[in-house]
Design brief:
The protein has helices at residues 18-36, 90-98, 132-148, 175-192, 244-253, 263-273, 291-294, 299-308, and strands at 9-11, 16-17, 40-45, 55-57, 70-73, 82-86, 101-106, 119-126, 154-157, 163-168, 197-198, 210-213, 229-230, 237-238, 240-241. The chain is of the alpha+beta class. It has a six-stranded mixed beta sheet, covered by helices on one side. Strands 3, 4, 5, 6 and 7 form a five-stranded antiparallel beta sheet that branches.
């Protein structure tokens, strides 16, 4: 397919060009496309690079080629449907990169089952005075509570400041179940660790704390996709899966840099370890039937964990290379 302005610099500090953006997405496509298949995507476009204005584009623009697959989704406020782009093939991915869609933000569901998320996401957002290492500390607390509920979770660094945890479902659970569950988890952890975690939206409450954003678990919000570039800085970082051992190592060494991956490092890593997020594509799990009954059972355990200052190491069975 035709591309244009390949020498245009999109990441200013590093001189990273549109050609390099397109090349990255081509190289990462075998890993990325399975995670985007049939998911409506919001594009975050930077026509003039990271120093220019950016915008989220939900509705496929008028110049979208006819061969680009889209899916109509009703607007919450009524009116014409939103035609979301589906990035189901390499040509569409390259087209999106060519229109400077540096970031790709898919929904948690696939079409046509737009009320049934295939996973739950916990977006760990560091407030002032905290960083990605603080998020890693919180990630273990989330993981351990989910594990007590017989739920496996998979972490990825956001490529910006935070960390996201994904809980695969692939069940018939809908957002009316998954969002209250995520909220209950966040609020329980905030109650047990009030100096470290907040579950409230107000930014005034987040200083020196990590906000567990449970609100992403709804049919009208998106989360930056795995293997997407991030345009928060003037150098291209990648939203990339990590092992629990790597989070633990970064915490012990107080090495935040170990949790940031630029394009070259991300591609090399994929060649070495493959898709650490592969289980997210197919692992079937169930939200406990009664959230209100399942979660309080562990409040005593959480209080004891807090009192001893214990943070468990990665469980061997969950830490094997995938």
């Amino acid at each position: 397919m035709p591309v244009s302005n390949l020498d245009k610099i999109l990441f200013q500090e590093s001189g990273f060009t549109k050609a390099q953006v397109i090349d990255y997405y081509i190289q990462v496509s075998p890993f990325l496309l399975p995670h985007l298949k049939n998911r409506p995507v919001t594009l975050k476009r930077y026509p003039d690079g990271t120093h220019g204005e950016s915008f989220y584009e939900k509705d496929a623009p008028a110049f979208t080629p006819a061969w680009v697959e889209t899916f109509p989704v009703p607007r919450r406020a009524g009116g014409a449907d939103i035609r979301y782009i589906l990035i189901n093939d390499l040509s569409t991915l390259v087209w999106c990169a060519n229109v400077a869609s540096l970031e790709l933000h898919p929904f948690l569901h696939c079409v046509p089952e737009i009320q049934h998320p295939t996973y739950i996401v916990f977006d760990l957002d560091p407030g002032p005075g905290t960083d990605v290492l603080t998020c890693a500390e919180v990630a273990f607390l989330v993981r351990d509570l989910l594990s007590r509920l017989n739920l496996l979770s998979f972490p990825k660094v956001s490529g910006s400041k935070g960390i996201q945890l994904y809980v695969p479902l692939h069940s018939r659970a809908d957002y009316a179940v998954t969002q209250p569950f995520a909220q209950a988890i966040a609020e329980l952890l905030a109650k047990g660790h009030p100096k470290l975690i907040v579950a409230e939206m107000a930014k005034s409450e987040r200083t020196k704390k990590v906000f567990i954003d449970w609100s992403q678990n709804v049919d009208f919000k998106t989360t930056v996709g795995v293997y997407s570039l991030r345009a928060k800085r003037d150098r291209p970082f990648v939203s990339l899966p990590v092992r629990w051992e790597e989070l633990d190592s970064a915490l012990r060494k107080r090495d935040a840099d170990a949790l940031y991956f630029e394009v070259e490092a991300a591609l090399k890593r994929l060649g070495d370890v493959g898709d650490l997020f592969a289980p997210v594509l197919s692992l079937k799990q169930s939200v406990p039937e009664s959230v209100t009954e399942a979660i309080p059972r562990h409040e005593k355990t959480m209080r004891n964990s807090k009192a001893t200052g214990h943070r468990s190491r990665p469980h061997p069975a969950k830490s094997k290379p995938i």
